[in-house]
Amino acid sequence: MPETESQGRIHTSTATVAVLPEVEDVDVDVDENDLQIDVYRSSGPGGQSVNTTDSAVRITHKPTGLVVSMQDEKSQLQNRVAAMRVLRARLYEQRLAEQQAEISAERRSQVGSGERSEKVRTYNFPQDRITDHRIKLTVSGVDRVLGGDLDQLTEALAADEKRQRLEAQTEGAR
Asked: Which DSSP string corresponds to 88-146?
C-alpha cells in the first residue's frame, strides 16, 4: 500500500516475465550420403569449352529438397566447392529460421497478456501473506521471499509439477 494512499486502498499491478534458454549455435554438418550430385554441361556464353566439358554442378540435399546449381567457374571442382558453400549457407539459414520460430513460439506460450485473470502469485503486504494461485499455496513472510528465500515456493511448485507428470503418465498408460 503506497504511503501516499490516504484512504487505505490496496493497489494492484501485474507484470509478465519470460525465462528462455540461451540460443545455441546452429551447426551445419552435411552428410555426403544426403546429397545427390549431378554434373552437366554449362549453358550460355563462355567459349568453346562450354559445350564439351561437364563443368556445371547441381547438388540436391535429399532430406530438405534444397537444390543448388553452380556453373560460374570453368572447373567442375571449383563449381562443386562453390555449390557446397551455397548449400551450407542455405541450410544454416533454414535451421536458424526454424530455431527462431521455435523460440518465438515458446516465448508466445510463456508470456500472457498481463491480465489480472492470469495472476500467478499475490503478495499481500498488510497481512504478510503470499498466495501462489497455480498450486493454491499460501505462505507468510513477504519480506523474506522478496529477499530471495524462495525455497518454500519452489519446492511446492516442483512437487506439483512432479504430481502432474505422474498423473499424465498414469493416464497415458490406461
From this structure: HHHHHHHHHHHHHHHHHHHHHHH-----GGG--EEEETTTTEEEETTTTEEEE-HHHHH
| Bridge partner residues of 60 (DSSP) | 36, 67
Task: Count CB atoms within 10 A of the CB of residue 16.
Answer: 12
Looking at the whole model, is its pTM more than 0.90? Answer: no
Render pLDDT for 76-97 as a digit per residue (tens, 0 to 9): 899 888 888 888 888 888 888 8
Quick one: cell of 3? 504511503
By three-state DSSP, how is residue 40 classified? Answer: strand
CA distances from 23 to 83, 89, 102, 123 (A): 28, 19, 11, 33
CA–CA gap between residue 131 and residue 149 (Å, rounded)? 15
Instruction: Name, in order, each residue with C-beta under 8 angstroms of 51's C-beta and a sequence gap of 6 or more.
Output: 41
Residue entry with cell 528465500:
149
Residue with cell 502432474: 164
Helix (H, G, I), strand (E, B) or coil at 13: coil
With H, G, I as helix, E, B as strand and everything else as coil, classify residue 78: helix
